Amino acid sequence: MKNTIEFDEIIIDRGEGLHLAYLFFVVPFIILHVQYCLYVRKQMRIKRQFRAVIRSTKRNRKGVKPSAE
Questions:
Q1: Residue 53 belongs to domain spanning
Q2: pTM greater than 0.90 (yes/no)
Q3: What are the angstrom distances between the C-alpha of 9 and each of 4, 14, 48, 57?
C-alpha cells in the first residue's frame, strides 16, 4: 500500500520525495565525508614520512664538521 494523498487532480507520493532527498543530500554528504577522511589520512602519512626524512638528515649531519668557507 503506497502512502499517497489526492487533491482534486494532484497526486502526491510521499515516498518519492524522501528517496530524492536521500539521493541528493545524504549520499553526497557521505561521499564528501569519506573523501575528507582519506585526505586527512594522506596528510598524516606525508607528515610522518617528512618527519622521518628530517630526522635521518639531522643524524647524518651530526658527524659532519661545517666547512670553512
A1: 24-57
A2: no
A3: 13, 16, 64, 77
For every residue of 18-66, which 3-state class applies, written as one string? HHHHHHHHHHHHHHHHHHHHHHHHHHHHHHHHHHHHHHHHHHHHHCCCC
Task: Note whether residue 42 is domain-resident.
Answer: yes
Of residues 46 and 59, the one with the higher pLDDT is: 46
Report yes or no on 44 lying in a domain.
yes
Q: Retrieve residue 3's grid coordinates.
A: 502512502
Residue 64 within any structural domain of the chain: no
Total count of domains within the chain:
1
Whole-number Å distance between alpha carbons of 42 and 27: 23
Residue whose C-alpha cell is 659532519: 64
